[in-house]
Each structure stands twice: as C-alpha cells, then as structure tokens.
Design brief:
By secondary structure, this protein is an alpha+beta fold. Helix content is about 50%, strand content about 10%. The chain contains 24 helices and eleven strands. Strands 5-4-6-7 form a four-stranded antiparallel β-sheet. A four-stranded antiparallel β-sheet has the order 9-8-10-11, sandwiched between helices. α3 crosses α7. The N terminus is likely disordered.
Length: about 675
C-alpha cells in the first residue's frame, strides 16, 4: 500500500506539470530576458547609463506585469480540475485524501512559481562575479529582489488559491482574485470620496495621501524597489499562512459536484450581493457627486443607480442569466434599507463631526496649508515635522477663527466651475490627539484671516526653507530671469553668501501678503546649490520679487543687478491689444503665433520708448490667456530672442498713454 501511494503521488505530480508547468517555464524565460539578458546587454554594449540600486530596476515595468499576472494565472490552470465535473470526479476518485491532495497541488504550484525566481537570482550572482559588477550589483540588493519577489508571488498566489476554493468558474476566480486583493484599498478610496459629500471638512486627500499603498499587495508593488516599513510585509506573510489553512478547510468542505457555480457556499452569496451593491453604489456616487454643486439630487441618484446596478449584476452572476428581475425583492427590503440608514447617519451629522472644533486652551499647536501633501511628506520640501506647525498664541487664535468662519459659511454653495482653493487644518492637542479637516474655499473671502497669518514672522520662518539654511551648507547662489535673458548673477564667496542670506530674510519678513502671492511678470528665480545630502533638489529655491528692495540695492552695489533681473533695456518693444479683439485657441496656443496675430491686427498698439515699456512691465501679470479676465494682452519682444513673452493687465491699472491709444 505505501508503494502504491508513492506511485499515485508521482502520477499526480506529472499531471500537475502537464496542466500548469508551462506557465512556470514561460515565467522563467521572460525573467531570463528581462534581467540576466538585460544585464549582459548593458555590459557588453557599454549601454549601462546608470547604476541600479537593485535588480528591480532592470525592466521594472515588465517585472510589475509578471508579479501581477503570473501568480494569478498559474492557480487558474492548476486548480482547473475543480471547475469541470469530469475532471473533478476523476481526481477525487483517486485513493488520496483531500488534505494530501490540497497540499500537493498548492505546494507544487508555489514551487513552480518561485523556482524560476531562485534560478534567476543564482544566474545574477554568477554574472556579478564573471562580469565584474560588484560595484553595481550589491549582494544585498540581489537578496532583496529575491525575497520581495518570492513574498509577493506567495501573497498573490495564495489569495488566488483561496478564491478558487469558493468559486466553480475559472474566469470568475481570476476576476474575484483581483477584486479580493484590491478590495481594502478600493473600499478605502471610495469611502473617502463619499464621506466628503456628507461630512463637511472630511480630509479625503489627507487619508488618500497617507499609508493607503499598504492596504493591498498590488498597490505596494509601486514602491517595491525600496520598502522601508517591514510591518506590512510581516502582516501579509501572516495573512498568506492564514489563507493557506482557510483554503484547506474550504477545500475539504467543498462538494466535488460544485462546479460551474460562481459562488460555491450559500453563506457567501449574500456577502457577494452586499459587496457588489455597496461598491457599485460608492463608485457611482463618487462619479455623480461632482455634480452636487448643481443639485444634491445627482448624488442620491448615484447611490440609487449604483446600488441597483450592483445588486442586479450580482444576481446575474449568481444565477448565470440576465432574467433576474424577479429576484429584486431582497434589494428593496434589505440592501436599499441599509443604504438609506447609512446615508441618513452622515447626512444629518448625527456624529457632530462637522462642528467639532477643539477649544483654544486644548490646542498645543496648529498647521494650516493648502493641502496635505507637504504635511505628510515634509522631507521632500526640506522641512522638519516641527516647521509645519504654528505655536504662537496669536496665530493659533487666527487659525481657530478662520476655521469657525468657514463653518459659519458652510451653507454657501460653490457655483459650478467657480475656482477654489484648499484650506487644510491640523490641530495637535495637549492630550496627544489630533484633529484634521480640509475645506474647499475661495481665499478672497477669508483674507482678513490669511493675511495676518501669512505675514507673521513665525509663518514665514516655517514656510520658507531658506530660514533653515546656514552659510556653510551653501556652495553657490544663482539668480536668473525667467529664460528670456541669457544671463544670471552668481554668488559664491562665503562673505557674500552670508550677506545675501541676511538680506533675503529681511526682505521676506518685510513682504506683504499681496507681494508674497503676486502673479506679476518678470520675477527672477533664486536657486541654492547645496553641499549636503538633501534628497529634493531645489527645495529652498524661491522667487526674487521686485519688491525686495534690500536685495535689489545689494545687487546694485555688487554690480550684479543687470545680470539678475530683466529690465526695459532687454526689450525692443511691446505690443498691446484688447483681449476681446484677439482670437486664442482655448485648447492651447504658441506665444509666437499669438504675437504674429497681434502684430497683424489693425487695433494693436506698439510702444518702443523705454519709459513706456517700464510702466507696462510694472503692471503685467502672468496668465493663461483663455482663462484671463483682464482687459489687455501685452506681448514683449526681447532682444536676440525669437519667442516673445505674453502677459495681461487690467483696465483699472492701465497707464494714461495706453488709454489714449485705445480711445
């Protein structure tokens, strides 16, 4: 009897190799061309243009596709016998108990998907020695690639095996496997999008910019080249072990005749209906929710339409026919009712989420910005965590008052197409808790709060990275115009750098809110060349405003002013035309084309005297012409430049000499 059992297991192994071994072979061949062959070609043809940090950087996109596709594809063929009655009866009639059968099939599939990875790693190790690539292919990076590839192959593979135990249709197994893997992140995204419709101030972008990538192994692949947080990896490894044994339990309970059914176990059918109903409702509401500025009805239509569509789709999947309209009673009595209750909870703010603002005496410090990105990723802008907070009592009070005023105006509906900006609040409380809110507002309505906050010394010091720089960190400072002048001012002497830092900080502290956020043209750009290891190049750069008088005077003393800024001496002439007389393609335009049309227009006026050009430069603002509400368009022809500069200015600022010409 033991020999017979051994022979039977060998025969099953042959059957497994015949049914799905080809997937492993193709996987190996593609990996062979994607990594070892690419390394060989890059070396022998001297095409190595960069030094990869790890093996994932060789044909990265192709490796992504393989990691997503192969661990799902192989189980479809491996367990295809369960989807056919004839094959299922044959396999389950063999004198092998189900537990051994499951272990042999599942572990064989795991080896088939990971042995090619191990072989490729060995080949790369050999290449590293033979081709003398020790400086490029570090041993740790090869082991990292090997470990990550095996881990993600395992997670996705076991998940697909698990789904295969609850369905009797191969194509449904494939689809549901991806749904299962993406379900946490999908529900999180849809939930965040929908909560902002009912909870005024819900910071959806804050949550979506957080650790959302860790909610699914498929989304984690985006950062697979460098995963520093090991905790999610251990969690997914544990989930894989759990799913393995759950799959075994389901397989032992699965009836052999349960083939060609979308869902094998009756207890899972209402879960499928609920899941598809909720997901489709959230998806439709996220789409139609953008039209709620026109009418709230669009949002509720999205929920009703999406939930109904999802429920019908689930019924069609379960009954394998489109004639399911006689089974809709459950939707009206159960799922529709649940949806209405959930909507009511948030619509009437039964949790008092919207009006919850901490008391002043409970606030340790606050953060106010135009969005959560810089708050969540301060290292990409040269900030430390502390510099994103305001600690002074005056600023805390102003931020608190601004927040209360936004809530007071919450019933004011934003018109469709009306421009808006984001107000992002973070309160860090004395009890260690945190309150985060995000609003879409028109800043012009709240300048009484924004102006004193942004003009405060504390705010400027924490939002201008130049205040964090020291003289010893800087190799060189460059000031150059916006590209219409082939010149720049360079400051490299340590004494000059020290003076420059002192002067620019004084100018920044003296600038007003209007100057800080001016859209005036002809501003130069200040960039810092640093000698430290800042990851984000240019993080401390800033515009050189024409209101920085101390800087302008200092540059004049150093005879660098003409190099740093554009002046009227750099311009041959300016052409002015009323915007309504100018035909501009709203989908895009070239400056040269607009300039040619202006020159040929009978109503256009040309100004050549340096005094007139200087006055026009002082009032010109940057603008995308199709969106501009200004009265006039002005084009400047620079010396020794083919392309002109285009800007706009308003009738209220028009110089007298222009008004006279357009009478």
């Amino acid at each position: 009897m033991p020999s017979r059992t051994s022979l039977l297991n060998t025969e099953i192994s042959k059957l497994i190799l015949r049914s799905s071994g080809w997937v492993s072979i193709i996987y190996f061949l593609v990996l062979l061309f994607a990594i070892p062959f690419e390394i060989l070609m890059s070396t022998t043809n001297e095409r190595l243009m960069f030094e990869p940090a790890n093996v994932f950087q060789y044909n990265l996109e192709l490796q992504y596709i393989l990691l997503i596709a192969v661990p799902v594809l192989l189980p479809l063929f491996l367990f295809h016998f369960m989807q056919s009655k004839q094959s299922s009866d044959l396999i389950h009639s063999l004198p092998v108990n189900r537990q051994k059968l499951f272990h042999q099939y599942t572990l064989s599939g795991w080896f088939m998907i990971n042995i090619p990875v191990v072989i490729i790693a060995v080949i790369v190790f050999v290449q590293r020695s033979v081709l003398d690539l020790q400086s490029i292919l570090v041993i740790d990076s090869i082991f990292y690639w090997l470990g990550m590839t095996i881990l993600f192959n395992t997670i996705i593979y076991i998940s697909t095996v698990f789904i295969g135990m609850v369905t009797g249709i191969s194509i449904v197994q494939g689809i549901l496997s991806y749904v299962f893997l993406l379900l946490p992140v999908g529900l999180f995204i849809l939930g965040a999008f929908n909560l902002k419709f009912f909870m005024f101030g819900f910071p959806d972008s804050y949550h979506l910019n957080g650790k959302i990538l860790y909610l699914s192994p498929l989304t984690m692949l985006e950062g697979i080249q460098k995963i520093s947080n090991e905790l999610p990896l251990w969690i997914y490894a544990g989930i894989s072990v759990l799913l393995y044994f759950l799959s075994l339990v389901l397989y032992k309970k699965r009836k052999p005749e349960s083939v060609s059914q979308a869902v094998i176990f009756p207890i899972l059918k209402p879960i499928l209906k609920l899941g598809m109903t909720v997901c489709c409702a959230l998806l439709a509401a996220a789409y139609f929710g953008d039209y709620r500025v026109v009418s709230e009805g669009w949002l509720f239509f999205g929920y009703l339409f999406g939930s109904f569509f999802g429920y019908v789709l689930a019924e069609i999947l379960l009954h394998k026919t489109w004639r399911v309209f006689g089974h809709l009673k459950g939707y009206y009595l159960y799922y529709g009712g649940i949806l209405i209750v959930i909507i009511a909870i948030f619509q009437f703010d039964l949790t008092n989420y919207e009006n919850r603002i901490p008391e002043i005496e409970d606030i340790q410090r606050v953060h106010l910005s135009d969005g959560p990105y810089l708050y969540l990723n301060p290292e990409q802008s040269g900030y430390s965590k502390d510099t994103f907070y305001l600690n002074e009592n005056t600023n805390i009070q102003l931020v608190h008052d601004l927040h209360k005023q936004i809530l007071f105006n919450k019933e004011s509906k934003r018109a469709l197409g009306e421009p808006y900006e984001t107000a992002f609040f973070v309160y860090e409380l004395k009890n260690g808790k945190k309150l985060v809110r995000e609003y879409e507002i028109n800043k012009e309505d709240y300048l009484a709060y924004y102006k004193p906050i942004h003009e405060s010394k504390e705010y400027k010091e924490v939002t201008y990275p130049v205040f964090n720089l020291t003289m010893d960190e800087i190799n060189m400072i460059t000031i150059e115009s916006m590209g219409y002048k082939n010149d720049r001012a360079v400051i490299s002497e340590k004494a000059d750098i020290k003076e420059f830092l002192s002067i620019i900080k004084e100018d920044i502290l003296a600038s007003t809110y209007e100057e800080m956020y001016s859209s005036k043209s002809f501003q130069s750009h200040i960039s810092f060349s640093l000698n430290n290891s800042k990851e984000y190049y240019g993080y401390a750069d800033l515009p050189a405003l024409d209101t920085y008088q101390r800087l302008e005077n200092w540059l004049g003393e150093k005879e660098l002013l003409d190099n740093a800024f554009i002046s009227e001496e750099d311009i041959d002439y300016a052409v002015v035309l009323e915007k309504e007389d100018l035909e501009i393609n709203p989908d895009g335009y070239s400056n040269h084309e607009v300039f040619t049309n202006m020159n040929n227009h009978p109503n256009a006026k040309t100004f050549k005297t340096k005094g007139q050009i200087k006055e026009l430069m002082d009032i010109t603002e940057d603008a995308y012409l199709p969106d501009s509400k200004k009265t006039y368009v002005v084009a400047y022809k620079f010396k020794n430049q083919q392309d002109p500069y285009l800007g706009t200015f308003d009738k209220s600022n028009t110089p007298a000499f222009v008004t006279e010409q357009f009478k």
